[in-house]
Design goal:
The complex is a heterodimer.
Chain A (H helix, E strand, L loop, with lengths): L1 H11 L5 E2 L20 E5 L5 E9 L3 E10 L6 E15 L6 E3 L20 E3 L3 E14 L9 E16 L2 E10 L4 E9 L11 E3 L7 E3 L1 E11 L8 E6 L11 E4 L4 E3 L6 E10 L5 E7 L19 E5 L19 H4 L8 E11 L9 E7 L1 E5 L11
Parallel strand pairs in A: 1-18
Antiparallel strand pairs in A: 2-3, 3-4, 4-5, 5-6, 5-14, 7-8, 8-9, 9-10, 10-11, 11-22, 12-13, 14-21, 15-16, 15-18, 17-20, 18-19, 19-23, 20-21
Chain B lengths: L1 H8 L3 H12 L23 H12 L3 H6 L2 E8 L9 E8 L4 E8 L4 E8 L8 H13 L1 H15 L10 E7 L11 E7 L11 E4 L4 E4 L3
Helix pairs in contact in B: 2-3, 5-6
Classes of the chains: A mainly beta, B alpha+beta.
Amino acid sequence: MFLQLALAAFVVAAASVTPLPDAPAPAAAETPPPCGSDHRVDQTLTNGARWQMCWEMRTIEGLTLSRVTYTPKGGVPVSVLRSAALAQIHVPYDSGEPRYHDIGSLGSAVIPLTDGDCPGGERRLDQVCVTTRPRGHAYLKDGFGDPGQRRSLQGRELVMLSAYQVGWYAYVAEFVFGDDGSITPRVGATGSLAGTTTSPEYGWPIGVGRKHFEESHSHNVFWRLDFDIQGKSRDVVEQYDFPGNKTKKRTLEKTVLTRETAARSRPTRWWRVVDPEVRNTDRHPVSWEINNTDTAQYRGPADERFTRADLYVTQYKACERLATYNAEPRCAESVDRYTDGEKVRDPVVWVNVGFHHVPRDEDADPMPVHWQGFRITPRDVTATNPYRAE
Amino acid sequence: MRRVVVLAAAGAGVSLLAGAAVLLTGDDAPQAARAVPSAPAPEDPLTPDEVRRAGTIASGPSSAQLKAGRVELLYVERDDDKSGDGRRARAYFYDYGDDTVIVRTVDLGRERIARETRGGGTQPPPSPREEIRAAELLLADKKLGKEVRRAYSKAAGRELRSAADLGLRGLVYTQPGGPCATHRCVRLFVRLPDGKFLDTSRLAIDLSAKKVHTLEW
């Protein structure tokens, strides 16, 4: 209802902005939910943040979330993602071969979940675990001797978890939604190592002595995120840098990515998707920030140009689904080819997070999970600390 | 053994899907087992009935080729194009006659094909039937087939009866320049009963040419 009001207001006064009001709009007929109860998640975390979304287990991408909406404590709903899913797990081995594309080359790979996989949560059709868990301190502020002024809060998060079997590997994939408005997509690789031997320059001895050298390899995980902040119009992606190497000063430098872009990570670089017309009560535009600094930045050969950037921004096209092995006729096949300079009116963000796995003795069966992922954090969605009611 | 049954029952992709729909409406399928199915909401996955109907409608123009084994129905997905409206499904086919992919978008409300796209140079993942076919080609290879049988009997303590005994998954494989640039090729993961995987990483099974390529690197 708020959204309708906001859109109506926008149509009437195109030059004006759409403020996020202080409190929910007065009672109005709720629009019917976009998905049925089996596929709907509506979780209010103990600190007041509410996350709503739909999920679907698709044959190729696996768990796909849609219509992700965040309502801060005491605030109004803000739609964030129209859809989010894995878009590739590219696994090149260090000797040069084999080079697997785990998504798009394989049909449905979902592993049925057990209660043990979903502590304290709810298994949906045995495919998805919906659960909440502690995430450590939300904040801590000392009272400087005055116990009455001491502030401390434990945070919680909502987890949407699924698992996939790809050959000897099992992948555990999570989308984590924090009570601070953050979203953390991550993939954990577990199951078993390949078990094939290689020469010492490409591996690590994991058997007794120096006989079995297990081959090192990369897992380059791609996510596709279709951000629609309060609808698909007006969203813009900005890139922020803070140049000033070996000097005292760091200056803020903003680059608006008006055209499709292949961008690389840098230590202080981040991006944000912003709707300049949707404002918080401080009149600052609402945005979500994307950080991808925890990547091994794998760069492959000329026929794997899709590995040569860490974040892509493309104009929404329904047929552009996977980062590689995109099996849609009359459509480009990989994300580097989607990125051809087109003007971006409705951005889709592709995030590439690499992890280089050098096997070790501890990776013996069943191999302990190693994680890789990135963080999406709200920037000016609320005008103040999200744990305080607005 | 289950796969053999499915294979025997599936003269065409459509029957395979119908079979899957029957399985899904069994006692242990909570959503499908409801007596009166409620209409799906816009973002809900396709119901087993919608998958079956979409498969049947989309197969119409290819029914003869499906029967002849020239065309394979791979899978049916919900069309989640955000600019679209109404319930739509997309059915993916592979045409071995000219090595092209056909995608037919089915309007489930009007029960008709709304759109068809066709093109080469792209490969969706193999269907379960194609995985079995790839394994049969591997077993039919004189030298490699013998090796697979030997590895299987060593791991299982009995002879291999058919490809369905192997713990199979197929990954589509493309390679610029080689035959797998245009043909439909599959790489297999083969899990033996003792939990070990066969090293099949150098093998690409060409379903279009019906032969096994050994990759050189």
